[in-house]
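Why does residue order matter? Because the sequence determines the fold. Keep that principle in mind as you read this record.
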Amino acid sequence: MDDHVGQQRPKRMRDDGEDNALAGQWRLAPPVSPPYDPESTIQGFAAPVSPKYDPSLALPECFRIPDTAQLSGRRTDIQQPIELAFYSHDTTRAIHHNSRSSLPFFHPPTIPSSDPAATDLNIGFRDRFIQRDDRPEPLDAVLTALHNKKNDKQVDFCTWRGIMTKFMVTPYARRDSWTLRACMWKGTIYIDEPPVARKSFGGNERERLFTYYGYKFENLCTNNTRRPSREEVVQNREGEVNTNVQFCSITRTRIGGFGTVLAAEVDCADPNVEIGMDQSAYIELKTNRVLTNDKQRFQFQRHKLLKTWAQSFLIGVPKVVFGFRDDQGILREIKTFETRAIPREVRGIEGMWDPSVCLAFAAELLGRLRTFVKEEGKVYSLYYGPPFQEITAQQSEDGTAMLPEWFLRGEGPPESK
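Structure:
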């Protein structure tokens, strides 16, 4: 006798993918709980820990990751994202709903520049870098924004854009672990990250500096004024780099037939485009080391462009601007990528990614989640990690630990009373 008494023993799946008939299907399986390895905490990122197995609950469901060849070329219906609501975080992290006060305009420096301060990403690191607590945020602010807009249209999922990006890139980022949680309420499945440290700004000096480069690039490329004067540009870049300041856009889309609400940070807006419901003015900003050889270009296309495309595509951001820096943190090039054209950058290159695979996998995973996360108010733990062959899901603690009380009671948020 064993732990599977009273249940059908799950069929073992071969690691070589021979059992293709079951690939991509949910199945009963014993829990996969790899031991925590402290050496796997690299560059300030905490190693995801698999949910603890609770024998009083049902055995976890497992979704085996299909081979990319099984998904390639599959058509997945996608709906153009529509902005439903938005809000801004100020310098203290306070939230201002229905406000774009923290959405700056794009004004990149000229490269090369006669002013060294216009391209130096190191300036301000020691004395003007204000870092927020970067633990995962709950969906409270998103739910409040939707409530304030009286948006009660039924959708299948509500989550952060970053989480949907994880789903989309998993077929090609097979070694990137993640732990999430999901809860169904009134027909919608809400997904976020557990309230544990996601990463730390308190890594070594080099890691903190590389983190700062990304924020400083945003500082050098943006201004709160649509048509800033020379004095306003200089004043902005000499000011603080405060990571509390953030603009969040909430959009509704459809992925493979599943209505989905996604909340995402937007870096800036095109000053020459009127801001509207189609996100055509929004711009994503990224940094990367200059590419000096074929290996670096391959890695950039294979990994950085994949995640960048997925992030921007999901919420309808049409342009991504990359700042390429040298090892001394000096900007050497600013290059714009059209989001819709990024897949063409990698098409036909051996070992690259296929957008149809990303979308098909995301849609299939969402479908499996709809069949499993079905007990209202209960929280389910979702885990992907070693041996990187399947996603496990199991019911865990009470749902009130994930969604705010006012939301579960059907009331308005505290500030709206």
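Residues 1-51 have pLDDT under 50 and may be disordered.
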